[in-house]
Design goal:
heterodimer; A: Rossmann fold; two-stranded antiparallel ribbon; 25 helices; 9 strands; B: SH3 type barrels; six-stranded antiparallel β-sheet
């Protein structure tokens, strides 16, 4: 046994079982399509260390989509398949099971979400099902870990079933018989959660709830983010890090090159972390002191919404609106993930079916969805000048989102496909699972962001030292000064923006901009190009040709929006 | 009398009698458990030819208006 595949319908809990088996930390959520890439890890059975692969969910092995095509290909490489089945929806899930049994691979079935059958008045005789199918059937609950031990201990019993290929009709007939004999339904009253499900999917009450949820989410994100900065991160930097840096600066001697690079410029003999621009001062303060608090608060709220199962409902509610932009409602999920960081957002674009949709979603995200790192910096810098200016920046981005969507929808050939998606039941999020996910995402941010930020700040210092910024600012001054009304030194922010958007926004700080210039600068920085990490993922997802087209749209949008703001404001 | 899914009122239920549309479409919804002979219940219908949400077996599915128009149902009684 070398390779074990976890396969099943979308949103049946494959990833939860995967992380139970391997101990690997991966993102688990309550909506179909969380896993867009194969995740692999190793588990331990006695002396063996087989590889476990978490395969994205599929309804069938007859490839009708890209994800399913890959699933079929994977199947030929697996030595054993753990078929994860949603026990609250046995009938539909068994179709894939029967298909699997015809593929001549050893199969073990995990009857997952076993705990939920009790609340829903569903009674399944697992032993009988095992007899019917001829392969081991083990009730499990991936989230709590129930049944996982038994699942592991029975993996060895799996053997391929010799059976002929049956037609679709025969399969459904067989499934009907199996379900009839192993499953008993008893009447149950709708629980409070189920009533809430009903209300939040009705058009009128649903929209009201959606507005409340979104408003509440942003309120919590902002309040928590500000609170963390004021009570934890600012004091940490002011009281502990600043004195340390001043001492180090004294050792290096002011006005030396090393002092400029590491500590940066002092303001009246003390360190202003947003102005200094040394690697050890601003370089650490931007990702940790300004951005991390918002990353934490954003991902906490997102994690709660994901695990509760709210996002697919939001997708249904905004479906109509999204069709005007050439997308269907489910595109809201990559866009929401993009608010955290455009990289996972860009990866999630894979859940959309068609090339046209992917192109539109990617372009809209790169242009109009600033990542949380950038948002945090904009809140920090622009928010200082007054809340109404934040309104202008984000309002402009939102207007751009709609206008560009409408234009692309009109100009690009084809129509937006319709939504077809399963809506999971609400589940009370497990606090430990939410915290684990928050920890993974925050750690990922620190690991991915901090090196780039430090590199960015170092790079800026070198560019200045070599007078390259001076040179470039002269070349680009017609656009920067002529069209956007920014000082030509702002070119440095645009250059660093390719690397990290948060540092780029931060670089507007020391330029002593007027409020109008700050608003234009922040908006242009959000629009003109994605950061390098997002760019790389998008090239992979869209192909280089589409990505170049998309990039042309971004730069054009930046030119127009910057100029318009300069004229209007 | 056969009506299509968009004509079913929220809260009403019926038996699926016929799926019209191409092979790709019927295959896709088949695999999500939407098949002839199944009891289907409309949960909600969104404004301006918006998505229709349905309950079938124990699953809830959101389906676009155009697709819903290809699913034909017999309402008993």
């Amino acid at each position: 046994m070398k390779k074990i595949l976890l396969m099943g319908n979308p949103n049946v809990g494959k990833s939860a079982i995967f992380s139970r088996l391997t101990g690997a930390r991966i993102i688990v959520s309550n909506y179909p399509g969380t896993t867009v890439e194969f995740t692999q890890g190793k588990m331990k059975i006695g002396d063996e260390r087989p590889i476990v692969i978490d395969v994205p969910g599929t309804y069938t092995f007859e490839p009708s989509s890209k994800a399913e095509e890959v699933a079929v290909k994977m199947l030929t490489e697996g030595d054993l398949v753990i078929n994860v089945v949603n026990s609250t929806n046995l009938e539909r899930n068994l179709y894939l099971t029967l298909e699997l049994l015809e593929k001549n691979v050893p199969v073990v079935i995990a009857l997952n979400m076993w705990d939920e059958t009790k609340h829903q008045g569903i009674n399944i005789d697992a032993r009988k099902l095992e007899k019917e199918l001829g392969v081991p059937v083990i009730p499990t609950c991936g989230l709590t870990g129930e049944g996982i031990k038994e699942l592991i201990s029975r993996l060895r019993e799996a053997k391929p079933i010799i059976s002929g290929i049956s037609s679709d009709t025969d399969k459904w007939k067989r499934i009907g018989e199996i379900v009839e004999s192993v499953q008993k339904l008893t009447h149950h009253h709708h629980t409070l959660l189920q009533r809430l499900e009903d209300v939040s999917i009705q058009p009128a009450s649903g929209l009201l709830i959606a507005a409340t949820v979104i408003y509440g989410a942003f309120w919590v994100i902002r309040t928590l983010g500000e609170g963390l900065i004021a009570r934890v991160f600012e004091p940490l930097f002011q009281n502990i890090w600043a004195p340390l840096m001043l001492k180090l600066g004294g050792l290096l001697g002011e006005d030396t090159f090393l002092h400029d690079v590491l500590i940066g410029k002092l303001t009246d003999g003390s360190i202003d972390f947003t102005m200094a621009f040394g690697v050890l001062t601003t370089g650490f303060f931007v990702p940790i002191g300004m951005v991390l608090p918002y990353i934490i608060s954003f991902y906490l709220v997102l994690g709660l919404l994901e695990d509760f199962g709210y996002l697919p409902r939001l997708a249904v509610l905004v479906d109509n609106f999204m069709h005007h932009l050439g997308l269907h409602g489910f595109a809201i999920i990559p866009l929401m993930l993009g608010i955290g960081c455009n990289v996972p957002g860009a990866l999630a674009i894979r859940i959309l079916e068609e090339r046209r949709e992917k192109f539109i979603a990617a372009t809209l995200m790169a242009v109009s969805v600033p990542c949380m790192a950038q948002i945090a910096m904009i809140i920090g810098l622009v928010g200082e000048r007054g809340g109404q200016y934040l309104g202008i920046v984000f309002g402009t981005l939102f207007a751009l989102f709609i206008i560009k969507g409408i234009i692309m929808n009109k100009l690009l050939k084809g129509a937006s496909p319709e939504i077809l998606v399963e809506i999971p039941p609400y589940r009370i999020p497990q606090f430990s699972a939410v915290l684990k996910k928050l920890w993974m995402r925050s750690a990922w941010f620190l690991k991915e962001a901090v090196p780039y930020v430090l590199l960015g700040v170092l790079f800026v210092n070198i560019l200045y030292a070599l007078n390259i910024i001076d040179f470039l600012s002269k070349i680009f001054s017609p656009i920067l000064t002529g069209l956007w009304g920014l000082p030509k030194e702002a070119i440095s922010a645009l250059i660093i923006g390719f690397l990290r958007k948060d540092v780029a926004v931060g670089m507007l700080g020391p330029l002593n901009l007027t409020t109008k210039q700050l608003v234009i600068g922040s908006t242009v920085l959000a629009v003109y190009f994605p950061c390098i990490a997002t760019f790389v993922v998008l090239v992979k997802e869209l192909g280089i040709k589409d990505m170049l087209k998309s990039a042309a749209i971004m730069m054009f949008a930046a030119l127009v929006v910057g100029t318009l703001l300069n004229i209007i404001l | 009398m056969l009506i299509d899914l968009t004509q079913l009122k929220p809260g009403e239920a019926g038996i699926i009698k016929e799926l019209r549309g191409g092979f790709g479409f019927t295959k896709r919804i088949y695999n999500m458990g939407i098949r002839e002979g199944k009891l289907i219940k409309k949960v909600s219908s969104h404004f301006w030819r918006g998505p229709q949400t349905i309950e079938i077996d124990n699953a809830r599915i959101a389906i676009g208006f155009g697709m819903a128009g290809k699913i034909f149902i017999e309402v008993n009684g």
